[in-house]
Design a protein that fits this description.
- The chain is α+β, with helices and mostly antiparallel strands.
- It has 21 helices and 23 strands.
- Among the domains are: about 230 residues, FAD/NAD(P)-binding domain, CATH 3.50.50.60; about 110 residues, Arc Repressor Mutant, subunit A, CATH 1.10.10.1800; about 50 residues, Orthogonal Bundle (DNA polymerase, domain 1).
- The protein is about 35% helix and about 15% strand.
- The strands form 6 sheets. A 6-stranded antiparallel beta sheet has the order 15-16-17-18-14-19, with no helix packed on it.
- Helix 1 packs parallel to helix 9, helix 3 packs across helix 4 and helix 6 packs antiparallel against helix 8.
- The radius of gyration is 26 Å and the shape is globular.
- It binds flavin-adenine dinucleotide (FAD).
- Flavin-adenine dinucleotide binds next to helix 1, strand 2, strand 13 and helix 9.
- It is found in: Cytoplasm.
- Keywords: Cytoplasm, FAD, Flavoprotein, NAD, tRNA processing.
Length: about 625
Amino acid sequence: MFNEVYDVIVVGGGHAGSEAAASAANMGSKTLLITMNLQNIAQMSCNPAMGGIAKGQIVREIDALGGYSGIVSDTSAIQFKMLNKSKGPAMWSPRVQSDRMRFAEDWRNMLEQTKNLDFYQEMVSGLIVENHKVVGVKTSLGIEIRTKSVVLTNGTFLNGLIHIGDKNFGGGRAGERAATGITEQLVQLGFESGRMKTGTPPRVDGRSLDFSKMVEQPGDAVPEKFSYLDVTKPLTKQRSCHLTYTSNEVHDLLREGFDRSPMFNGRIQSLGPRYCPSIEDKINRFADKDRHQLFVEPEGWDTVEYYVNGFSTSLPEDVQFKALRSVAGFENVKFFRPGYAIEYDYFPPTQLQHTLETKLVEGLYFAGQINGTTGYEEAASQGLMAGINASLKVQERDPFILTRSEAYIGVLVDDLITKGTEEPYRMFTSRAEYRTLLRQDNADIRLTPMAFDLGLASEKRLKRMEEKHSKAEAFVDFFKETSVKPEEINPILEANDSAPMSQSDKMFKIFARPNITIHDMRKVASVDAYIIEQNLDTEEIEQAEIQVKYAGYINKEKNNADKLTRLENIKIPKNFDYTNMQSMSMEARGKLNKIQPVTISQASRISGVSPSDISVLLVYLGR
Ligand code: FAD
């Protein structure tokens, strides 16, 4: 059935697998996507939403690099919000509420339209490895398919075990079976594996809810979108979410089920996502809080199904039901399905290189939840990177690695492979030391030139980005070079409680003042005339505004990033042996031997490696 040798086989059609398949195929690699159920391509296992704090920036980065997640998030969106708009631009984070079914359908359509991509529905039960190199996969029907590289993106499916109260059964996700065979084989090959868990809330029938008892949460009045491409448009209509709260009565009802909870009776041992705790975890850990927020989110444009965000649980279904019926607006609730928790295998990501290729088996890449991450965006971005690097390797081209100062994706990969993770890893803005540089508004400026070099962005796209960039820069120069007289600017300053000017000065200085916005500056005739004459659009104006108002922070971070780049340039030889470096702590020697950092900078980020260990290493390397 499969006579040809593929360049890249992607195992799993979740968020990681879909991006991996798209990037590999778009880079010209003959690619096969094998997944257990082709109806469930890029299925949203948990909440029907993309983006959010730090995750929204990742989706913009994926889009700038030529991935599909941004486009599909736009085409399937039912509501758009720019979170944190009241804070500085480093914190602005786009988020959409998605139509779950349309999201999966649009993903599948986009993949079907992708050249060089074949599909096959089956479970992969093992890998074919020869001389520490992957050369194929085996399916559960016993079919062998040959390839030059494999990207594993099994998500929560490896030996997945679903828990609802005291019942548990094998499964990769509600209604889908678990995947077996792969973990056992990888462990035999020398890989270390671990166990993690995550959970999801019940889905309910919107017709049984009383929304008049909840607070409406509409989308933004002027919605934006994810993709930098003009193939998608901002929403013209939106669906609202609703906010309600738990109460002490609800908490008491939930506590009645604690003795049957797999979380508390020891049946679940593995760690779950700290920042996305179950409701039982919340009332247990924060016993003094007498209510928790619940966001009631529609699952699509036309469906009556709702997702109860904040009520993730693995308590027995009767307890879930009784407790939810005590929530305001849920008195007559009908369940579509109860919440559940799932335990699954993952592989500590310190076993990977920056390319996401495993250190043990050549040509084998891991991406997504299999690496101990949680979240669609984290998974999708790893899939994109693994697909790119698998293709580059097959094409004998240099690897593609993003640094911590270039992208959140760089931070994510570097954190995973350098520090590892013992609990599900999700991205936060606080994980990025250069977050003022890594904004959602400039992901295209940062990354589209790289996508063009990789063959994932067209020349037209690159030109468009360059035009936006140069028009914004020219507008900043205009503020630096053009003066304004006190008689013109002082009424504007007074209206904004800003100190008046006594003599003419450059507009850059005035615009940089905290309470002066572009709307104020446009009242200066020459500014308005410039915008009209240069035909600047909203994005270009916003880009220039950020460059002026945050110039101090941006320059400081650029300087720090340059210093880091210098350390990134000090390479450590491959397979460097730290064992006999007596002046270095035992812990540092052990960790450095295990992780084998590629640069001094990476070595310095390994926990347990101190600045004095780094000094010793520098001396050793003759620096
Ligand atoms: P998945 O989306 O899980 O996709 C894996 C794909 O691989 C599936 O299509 C599967 O069929 C296929 N597959 C697996 N094994 C094989 C095989 N051997 N052969 C062929 N195909 C195979 N994220 C959050 O951010 N917050 C949460 O609270 C949260 N809760 C979750 C709750 C539950 C119950 C689940 C299941 C997931 C939850 N997630 C949550 C995680 C989110 O769904 C994942 O992070 C994301 O989907 C991971 O993407 P992925 O591509 O790695 O894997």
